Amino acid sequence: MAGVALGAWAAGSGASAGAADAAGSVSRGPGPGGWRYSGEGARRGGRRAVGAFRGMWVATVFNRDFPSRSGLTAAAQRAELIALLDLAVKRRMTAVLLQVRPSADALWPSPYEPWAQCLTGVQGGDPGWDPLGTAVAEAHARGLELHAWCNPYRVATNTDRTKLAPGHPVRLHPEWAVAYGGKLYYDPGLPEVRRHVQDAMLDAVRRYDIDALHWDDYFYPYPVAGESFADDVAFQKYGAGFADRAAWRRNNIDLLVSETSARIKALKPHVAFGISPFGVWRNASADPLGSDTRALASYDDQHADSRKWVKQHWIDYVVPQLYWHIGNSAADYAKLVPWWEAVVKDTGVRLFLGEALYKVGDPAQPAAWQDPQELVRHARLARSRPGVGGHCYFAAKEVATDPLGALTAVLADDTSRGARRV
């Protein structure tokens, strides 16, 4: 399980070696457990302790960060990817979290799902190269971790099934998908769906020397006013014995997490498994174990029991999306950091903090986000909490543009303090 991988890293056993590492010619950056692959040591499975984690999400859905638009030549796409990896090095990142399965499609030649639409503009269109394979090799050559970021259940950002590639699993099994909020989702209540999405994601683990399988915050979809998620058939078939539909849905997600964890560890024990859930698990008003917040809660609204995943050691690291400023009345960053630190205490699960770099300088955001020092305050708070292992920034476009110089300020503050890098 999760603790096994972290223990293996600490003990210097169980790391993998890619082609470059096998030659002893490449030193990778800090891994999700705070360890480093290094040349000859990597061949033997050794890692050595280094500083904190600093990650950069690279979103491909809607061509947000990569590629800049669909339909570019293979050479142009590859050049853009290399530029993003070089950017990560320049901005002192230790890991790139590349979205390789944005909408039940893939940035590698998957036998389970079609090529991603973001590459050619047509789902299933062969881009003429292997983005994930290239990303792994080029990231490792630069000393970076490469985390394969997948969205487990999103099928499409619209409800028109005719736009799915011929041969898409949902074209073959239309009962697998539910339309909700103008999008299509796999139904998490169907065991055959759960197996399929695991198989699709684990194909990347099996075939590539990735450092981690990473999931974002989408499980059951975020609530849409006036709509119900139409899983009546699945609930009637599989929901017996549960107190209510919400408990059954949480169990469905728990099974996805726990089964995936076990399969990763059976397949490649050195590959980490990390999840970036919504930043509020439960509000204290609903559960005394919850946080002092008044916000949407993943447990209640998405049926995602992120606290349980940590306590059960099903994951190696957790990156709660703490996309609020210090002093926010509904969800205060300064209150959520110690809450999450307490959750991971004594579990062996690493805690990294998801940071809303995209909010900095956005005129639609509160005044705190017009101050380039807001993220500096986040970094300083994190340095005061021994249970925090680093940060992850959303997303690559903002890492490049550095709104208001906020990321530059964080990096300068780190350097001036000479502290562990966060």
Give a written overview of the molecule.
With 422 residues, the chain is α/β, with parallel strands linked by helices. It has helices spanning 2-11, 19-22, 39-43, 74-90, 117-120, 131-141, 169-172, 191-207, 232-238, 245-267, 298-302, 306-311, 333-344, 374-383, 396-401, 406-417, and strands at 27-30, 35-38, 47-49, 53-58, 95-101, 145-150, 154-156, 177-180, 183-186, 212-215, 272-275, 317-318, 350-355, 388-393. The strands form 3 sheets. Strands 4-5-6-10-11-12-13-14 form an 8-stranded parallel beta barrel, surrounded by 6 helices. A hairpin with a 2-residue loop joins β8 and β9. α14 (374-383) packs parallel to α16 (406-417).
How does the SSE layout of this entry go?
Layout lengths: L1 H10 L7 H4 L4 E4 L4 E4 H5 L3 E3 L3 E6 L15 H17 L4 E7 L15 H4 L10 H11 L3 E6 L3 E3 L12 H4 L4 E4 L2 E4 L4 H17 L4 E4 L16 H7 L6 H23 L4 E4 L22 H5 L3 H6 L5 E2 L14 H12 L5 E6 L18 H10 L4 E6 L2 H6 L4 H12 L5
Parallel strand pairs: 4-5, 4-14, 5-6, 6-10, 10-11, 11-12, 12-13, 13-14
Antiparallel strand pairs: 1-2, 2-3, 7-9, 8-9
Helix pairs in contact: 4-6, 8-10, 14-16
List keywords for this structure.
single chain; disordered N terminus; 16 helices; eight-stranded parallel beta barrel; 422 residues; alpha/beta; globular
Q: How far from one another are the termini?
A: 26 Å
Number of DSSP strands? 14
Strand order of the largest sheet: 4-5-6-10-11-12-13-14
* Category by helix and strand content: alpha/beta
What proportion strand?
Answer: 5-15%
State the shape: globular
